[in-house]
């Protein structure tokens, strides 16, 4: 039985990856320090013989007994609101955490896949973004702690590949959504759905003309799974190229939820990228991958998930970050 370590296991993406690897017949070792993750996302796995969990911060030395075949490094705060609140931890997990896990991969002779991000492109001057674009990042802006940690992560990962011969993979993840997103993580989708469910107006930042391209989580997990099993070491974009403006997105959520509330406009956060769309030619050619779930389908599943949460969670989410 192959053994895989997944860091950030209690988070949105990490928990879906744990599910997928269990389904594929792996022994899964989850690790999380639970700063932004939630054990509720993986509690259904605790009864399984082939799932273990370590409560640990990967920015400190990582010890895992036994052999490891694969490591997936998904531990990191990943929303602007989180990394504004915990900037140092964000820098450390992307840099020191990555270094520890690359060292572990080397020691265990394991293949490691690190979660990078479309944020390495910053506020992009090239559209759509392909992997050869180097980006337009403000290192000292509010997003710098995340963007630069992830850029360092990519450099460190390539160095372990070229210098130590470690089998490494780098996925650049674009905006992703689905069940288990945190209602209060500040991202646009949980923000809008939470507002609709509480009967509040939807807060569009700026004039709403900025664009994003949203990928359903199952599609993302499929792309990551294929990349892990490939023999490709350069970064690969995984995302859904279907691009919309944030205003259009707010209208879609209003329609989906049937809310009678309206859109209100708030100031645009500093360095908020104006446009973002993945060029997925590389993933298509190398992995035979492209997204399958369209937005109306994915949003319906996600809305049903948020609707199933208790009133308490819905209102707690409103206040935690205010
Ligand atoms: N956004 C918004 N209203 C909100 C939250 C976010 O208009 O309540 C905007 C945000 O300014 C950005 C886009 O939605 O332009 C996506 O934001 P998110 O935080 O989800 O992710 P990002 O892609 O910016 O990292």
Tell me what you see in this structure:
The chain is of the alpha/beta class and 322 residues long. The chain folds into two domains: 198 residues, Rossmann fold; 88 residues, UDP-galactose 4-epimerase, domain 1. 39% of the residues lie in helices and 17% in strands. The chain is built from ten helices and 13 strands. The strands form four sheets. It has a seven-stranded parallel β-sheet with strand order 3-2-1-4-5-6-11, sandwiched between helices. Strands 7-10 form a two-stranded parallel sheet. Helix 4 links the parallel strand 5 and strand 6. Helix 3 packs parallel to helix 4 and helix 5 packs parallel to helix 7. The model has no long low-confidence stretch (mean pLDDT 96). Uridine-5'-diphosphate (UDP) binds next to helix 5 and strand 8.
Q: Write down the CATH topology of the largest domain.
A: Rossmann fold
Could you list the spans in which at least 5 consecutive residues all have pLDDT below 50?
none
**Bound heterogens, unique:** uridine-5'-diphosphate
Helix content: 25-40%
Compute the number of helices: 10
CATH-scheme architecture of the largest domain: 3-Layer(aba) Sandwich
């Amino acid at each position: 039985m192959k053994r895989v370590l997944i860091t950030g296991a209690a988070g949105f993406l990490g928990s879906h990856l744990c599910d997928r690897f269990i389904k594929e017949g792996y022994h899964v070792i989850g690790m999380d320090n639970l700063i932004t993750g939630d054990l509720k996302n993986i509690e259904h796995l605790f009864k399984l013989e082939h799932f273990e969990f370590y409560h640990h911060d990967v920015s400190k030395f990582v010890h895992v007994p036994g052999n490891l075949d694969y490591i997936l490094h998904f531990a990191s705060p990943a929303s602007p609101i989180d990394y504004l609140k915990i900037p140092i931890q964000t820098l450390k997990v992307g840099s020191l955490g990555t270094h520890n896990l690359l060292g572990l991969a080397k020691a265990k002779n394991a293949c490691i896949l690190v979660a990078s991000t479309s944020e390495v492109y910053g506020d992009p001057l090239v559209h759509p973004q392909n992997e050869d674009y180097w980006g337009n990042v403000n290192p000292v802006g509010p997003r710098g702690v995340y963007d630069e940690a992830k850029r360092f992560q990519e450099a460190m990962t390539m160095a372990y590949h070229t210098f130590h011969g470690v089998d490494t993979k780098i996925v650049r993840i674009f905006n992703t959504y689905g069940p288990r997103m945190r209602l209060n993580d500040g991202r646009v989708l949980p923000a809008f759905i939470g507002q609709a469910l509480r009967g509040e107006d939807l807060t569009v930042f700026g004039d709403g003309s900025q664009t994003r391209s949203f990928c359903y989580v199952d599609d993302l997990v499929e792309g990551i799974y294929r990349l892990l099993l490939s023999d490709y070491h350069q970064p690969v974009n995984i995302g859904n190229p279907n691009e919309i403006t944030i205003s259009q997105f707010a209208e879609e959520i209003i329609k989906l939820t049937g809310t009678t509330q309206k859109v209100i406009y708030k100031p645009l956060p500093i360095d908020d990228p104006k446009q973002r769309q993945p060029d997925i030619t590389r993933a298509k050619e190398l992995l035979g991958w492209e997204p399958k779930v369209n937005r109306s389908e994915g949003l319906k599943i996600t809305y049903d998930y948020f609707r199933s949460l208790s009133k308490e969670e819905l209102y707690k989410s409103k206040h935690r970050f205010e």
